[in-house]
Design brief:
Elements (H helix, E strand, L loop, with lengths): L1 H7 L3 E9 L7 E9 L2 E11 L12 H18 L6 E10 L6 E5 L4
Parallel strand pairs: 3-4
Antiparallel strand pairs: 1-2, 2-3, 4-5
Length: 110
Amino acid sequence: MAADWLRAHQCKILARNYRDKRRGRRTGEVDIIAREQRLLLFVEVKTRHENSKIRPLDAVNKDKQRLIERGANDWLRRLGTRQLPWRFDVLEVYVAEGKPPRVNRVRNAF
């Protein structure tokens, strides 16, 4: 659903559930890697119930940010360049019984 939302907002999906597994261990991960024109997006998707007291963005703590950053660094290493403009976004997905999901995009989340 998150990838479809990004596509509907003019983003091209490059990878989903990207995992850096160098040396046989998981060292980094990114939910969605997308491109918005020339901008490369590393997107974390977090879902919560509409009535949750905790915002989805709050679940992206420092440890999770480091995991996403390592995944992004591996992707950039594989591209062979860091000269592309890029950023970290979080898609907050709110769900409620009988309603379509609501998405909030947090640009430059960290």
